[in-house]
Amino acid sequence: MDIEAFSELFPLFSTANPETIEWLLSVTTEHEYPAERTVLMEDSWGNAVYFIESGWIKVRRLTGDNETVTLAIMGEGDFFGEMSVLDESPRSTDVVALSTVKLFSVSAQRFIQLLFKDPQLHHKMLQLMVRRLRNANARFYWRKQPPALKLVKTLLLLAENYGQPTDQGMEIIQLSVSDLADVADITPKEVEMILSKLEGKGWIEIGEGRIHLINFKQLTNLANRA
Fold first, then answer.
1. What is the per-residue DSSP string for 141-152?
2. What angle do CA 103, 14, 70 make, to 5 degrees?
3. 25-61 tens-digit pLDDT
4. How far apart are CA 31 and CA 196, in angstroms?
5. What is the DSSP letter of 92?
6. Which of 207, 179, 219 is nearest to 72 (CA)?
7. 189-197, Cβ contacts within 8 angstroms, sequence gap of 24 or more
């Protein structure tokens, strides 16, 4: 991948110096995983930072009952693992591919060097971390809202961050009912009922491994209701 394509794909590097990106590309390792493959085990956090070139992943927390809870869904152009590198803390989470996924990884040591190399990159990193904090705060606020609003807000946020434009609007990967329930903080039964209603209204269309968000105006209006 050339420097221009890399900076366009990853917002983190949109203001980085070309020399910084060129150096980064010289020290990255490429990975490719099939759907359902574990990308990062819980004991591997802190070793590297991963950048998603294509595909979708989920971050899940492991419980003591051999069950998991999905904490986040991430897609093309995003990255993960940076917090464990920066604060050197262990994680009881792992990362699983939801589709075929291609990643770049850079070791923890190289990532720290990268931040010191380019002040613009350092500043952009802080901006994106603040954005993630705001999203987390918004999800906390959503907990008091009706299930339909929480699910629609979740779908719109995924479309905003990772969606692909189509003739029908925007599309995201078709997530499992349990993953959507975890991320939206509602029950699987509520997810099934709400998706059915949205599809019946023609606001979304589900099929071929994708959820198409068709009627953005109506979905946004619903999400903005107090």
1. HHTTS-HHHHHH
2. 40
3. 999 999 999 999 999 887 778 789 999 999 999 999 8
4. 37
5. S
6. 179
7. 190/147, 190/151, 191/151, 194/147, 194/148, 194/151, 194/152, 195/151, 197/148
Q: Amino acid identity, residue 197? A: K
What is d(CA 52, CA 80) in angstroms, rounded to the nearest whole number?
Answer: 8
Q: Which amino acid is at 92?
A: S
d(C-alpha 157, C-alpha 74), whole Å: 11
Task: Write the pLDDT tens digit of every residue in 118-164.
Answer: 888 888 888 888 888 887 787 777 778 999 999 999 999 999 999 99
Which position has the token pair 């009706």? 146
Q: Please check whether residue 105 is in contact with residue 28, taking contact to mean a CB–CB distance below 8 angstroms.
A: yes
Q: What digits encode the pLDDT tens for the residues 162-171?
A: 999 988 789 9
Quickly tell me which residue has 């903005």 as its tokens: 224
Identify the CA nearest to 90 among candidates 38, 40, 42.
Answer: 42
- Percent helix / strand / coil, the chain, rounded to 5: 50, 25, 25
Specify the higher pLDDT residue, 193 or 220.
193
Contacts of 183 (CB under 8 A, 6+ apart): 70, 71, 72, 73, 154, 175
Supply the pTM of this predicted model.
0.90
